[in-house]
Amino acid sequence: MTEPTRQRARGLDRAFDILDHLKRVGRPLRPNEIAAGLGIPKSTVYDLVGLLLERHMLDAVGRDGQVYLGRELYFLGQAHLRHFDLAREAGLLLDDIVAQTRETAQLCQLNGRKYTVSLMKEGARAFRISSNVGEDAPIPWTASGRLLLGHLSDAEILALIDPDDFILPDGSRLAPTTFIAEIRSACAEGFFSFDSIADTYTHCFAAPVQDASGLSIATLCIVAPRADAQAHHAEYRQVLVDSARRLSQRLGGQENP
């Protein structure tokens, strides 16, 4: 790779870093705040922010020089959804899961070294359970994480997970060997559920969505109050596993049985 090519690649990486940082922070920032948050030179950030503003990947907000994710990203996202079979097909099945269980249903995926909720349909109950779509979370904190890493070796799993992500919200540490054992068991069973690590009142169910090669590319999930999850565990599990199988078949071009 020539030096000009490497420089362009680094510039592209920095531009994506800026967009990712604004997504994580969730509010407009001034370029010098972005530079401080990313630990990169202010001059670099100012140059890239100017380019991103020209392409409407960023929009100027207010009068203090703040910027935030721009309108062009919305249009790109809409184009992605129109042509992305997983999102389109999953949305229909999430509606079906909510209709059958009245619980919150989600499509979840990996986002690099993190986990994220890609789509969500809130449950049909007065008690509202929801997650922030697109917000990254540590993989070991999630039921889906036990199903999305099964194609990796033990060494690859440990290389992927940030060591700090094994520290749970209550301050305790999940042993990596325990996490890997749960991955192997969940993938063999094609299902995983547990009381949420992130809160004290919900139970999470997850079933894998697989592509034509058998790789788990996403999960369908149900998030329910613990008491309801215990009372309807077998029913919710069956609904979820059947829905994930249907989605896998559709992505693979198969007809439903």
From TrEMBL:
<protein>
    <submittedName>
        <fullName>IclR family transcriptional regulator</fullName>
    </submittedName>
</protein>
<dbReference type="GO" id="GO:0045892">
    <property type="term" value="P:negative regulation of DNA-templated transcription"/>
</dbReference>
<dbReference type="InterPro" id="IPR036388">
    <property type="entry name" value="WH-like_DNA-bd_sf"/>
</dbReference>
<dbReference type="GO" id="GO:0003677">
    <property type="term" value="F:DNA binding"/>
</dbReference>
<dbReference type="InterPro" id="IPR036390">
    <property type="entry name" value="WH_DNA-bd_sf"/>
</dbReference>
<keyword id="KW-0804">Transcription</keyword>
<feature type="domain" description="HTH iclR-type">
    <location>
        <begin position="9"/>
        <end position="71"/>
    </location>
</feature>
<dbReference type="GO" id="GO:0003700">
    <property type="term" value="F:DNA-binding transcription factor activity"/>
</dbReference>
<dbReference type="InterPro" id="IPR029016">
    <property type="entry name" value="GAF-like_dom_sf"/>
</dbReference>
<dbReference type="InterPro" id="IPR005471">
    <property type="entry name" value="Tscrpt_reg_IclR_N"/>
</dbReference>
<dbReference type="InterPro" id="IPR014757">
    <property type="entry name" value="Tscrpt_reg_IclR_C"/>
</dbReference>
<keyword id="KW-0238">DNA-binding</keyword>
<keyword id="KW-0805">Transcription regulation</keyword>
<dbReference type="Pfam" id="PF01614">
    <property type="entry name" value="IclR_C"/>
</dbReference>
<feature type="domain" description="IclR-ED">
    <location>
        <begin position="72"/>
        <end position="253"/>
    </location>
</feature>
<dbReference type="Pfam" id="PF09339">
    <property type="entry name" value="HTH_IclR"/>
</dbReference>
<dbReference type="InterPro" id="IPR050707">
    <property type="entry name" value="HTH_MetabolicPath_Reg"/>
</dbReference>
